[in-house]
Amino acid sequence: MVSPVLVLLCGIGLVILLIVVVRLNAFLSLMLAAFAVSLLAPGDWGEKISRATAAFGTTAGNIGVMIALAAVIGKCLMESGSADRIVRTCLRILGERRAPIALMASGFVLSIPVFFDTVFYLLVPLARSFSRIIRSGYVLSVLAIGAGAALTHTLVPPTPGPLAVAGLLGVDVGHMILMGILIGVPAAMLVFPFLNVLEKLSPLPVRPYPGEQEAPPRPDQELPPFWLASTPVVLPVVLISANTILKVLAKQNPQLGSAALVASIIGDPSLALFLAAIVAMVTTVWNRRLSLTELGRMTEEALMSAGMIILITSAGGAFGAMLRQTGISENVGRFVESQSQAGGLLLLVTGFLVAAIMKTAQGSSTVAMLTTAGIMGSLFKTPEALVQYLHCHPVYLALSIGAGSLVFCWMNDSGFWVVARMSVWSETEALKLWTVTAALAGVAAFVVTLLFAWLLPGAFFSG
Length: 463
Known about the structure:
Blueprint: H1 4-21, H2 26-40, H3 48-80, H4 82-94, H5 99-110, H6 116-134, H7 138-155, H8 160-168, H9 173-201, H10 226-252, H11 257-266, H12 269-288, H13 292-324, H14 328-338, H15 341-362, H16 365-378, H17 383-390, H18 395-404, H19 414-423, H20 427-455
GO molecular function, one term: gluconate transmembrane transporter activity
Family: Belongs to the GntP permease family.
Subcellular location: Cell membrane
């Protein structure tokens, strides 16, 4: 029998080799690694390939619908002008003097249902316009957008990375949303003063795009009202969170059983996102005067973009499931148990560091989170065993992994190039500014996670 630790190392090495050196697509790389690990793990030879594909299907069944619906919501927010309305309202409330904070808040909120790249494309033109008016603050505004969007991109479902990590570690999606927001807000507040320092060290001007003209902003009267624009973002968060909270309260107060039952239906993540998607589509049709054919074409584009994300996250789930088949949980479980209370802290630190290493090696935060969650989840046979060894709620391990996936963002990450090109920065400038900002955001999120794990080990849901 091959050593479980050796199989684990071979699996990690194969993923890095295929993605970084061979430049193979992440889905193919993760599935090949899952097959390889399954072949080396104990079990019936006739089932070693089929169990990997079955694990792929299980993960897809758990998260596929949610990722697809989140993509539709994100597309509709952009096309209807809802995202624009949310940003302009934040700017109006906070005022021009606090525009960087408003841009950070906008990035933080919009990156929950919308992918990081899309949020950045939307908000950077606003940062450019604002900085031209006041003739300063461009670097601060851009970094504030990036930091806010990156934090929710790696901490708050239904973004694919956090959603998949929650599934792999047995964390309730509602818990992940609530704690991701609670960790992300103070982390953003911790990072912001450092962004001011980076602005003073590198006060870069707004540079023109080479050979391109920026699209003019849409008139305010063409945008939907704020309450309607924000509903697709707020509705699923409220419904899913209500389901999670009522589920806990009903255990202590049986009279809430009926309310908890209703909440369990409409607060199911898939249905909650479906309702939000319907609101988003209706808003888009009403505001843009689209025909049903045009709406169908638009949603099809969104679903096509979601398809690759579903494939990658499901392949990551298969890889993690095959690592669990190696039997490594017995070895690691004995070691962690011997560490007593230090074992829980050790797991959080390990999750953060492994995610950071995977991020640095291959570039994608989502792949780093999937791989790390697969590794950490494979160390324990059941979610209950994980809780026993952690001495705190497993949501903190999921958030530690998310925080680690922000360190180290450099030239092998597509997000690095989005920031560099949209900001019109050189590679050196992007390394000095964006790479440092992403690392600061990751470290800040991890520090806040450790603090919460120490002060509130049950994460409000120990009941």
